[in-house]
Amino acid sequence: MKKLFSALFATLLVASLFFSSFAAAHGVKTPPAQKSYVALGDSISYGYNLGPNNDNPSIFAFPYLLGAAANLKVTNYGVPKMTSGQLLTALQTDSAYIASLQKADYVTLNIGNNDLLGALSAARAADGSVDPVKLQQALGTIVPAMIVNIKNSILEIRKYTSAPIAVYNIYNPAQVEDPMHAQFTTLLTTVVNPNIAAVVNVLAPYNVTLADAYSAFGENQKLLVRQNDIHPTILGQAVLASIGFSALKLSLPTYGK
Fold this sequence. Notes:
By secondary structure, this protein is of the alpha/beta class. It contains 11 helices and 5 strands; from the N terminus they run αβααβααβααβαβααα.
């Protein structure tokens, strides 16, 4: 029943975006967004590979689906290839990030995916295979730094806003039949996501919650992750929007009242 509700809710979020676009195109007035939502992250927040090109963030990226569902003004700082260290630097030095966060009523943080891809790249041989010894060595350096960066990024956000923050953990990007699927499962369930959860638990008193992307995607990569890709499908983005919506304790707006 819970999975069915999640699927239906994700579909509702996609429908809400179409409704907003249709209403705007036909001159139907909807209440202006009163609250601001800032999405921080990488190519997943950007909506990579969901449009004819990647020149601009996709309207199907989860921040826009979430924003349409809750009638929020969205500022999407999803940057393809961004790492956790680069995001932390941006939060410390980029005046646009700081100004947006000072006005934010809600924040999502989805980062770390490129850190892990960097570890895989460092361990990949010329024939495309992954050397398990080199992978463990790379992960031993990259993962602890990534977790520290995520924690410090949350603390940096807190300097500018008291808005609730939903922190996404990392879903398994490999298709079930892919040999890498089992390796990702082990890595994510034993090392990466437990550490992200630990950071969120420590900072929970500061209105920080977990958006559990790993559990939401489960073994449904065929539907939720693009084939021959690591990025979400439109439905996958809707699932990310759904769990962010819940983590931020948002509600659907009422119109015509």
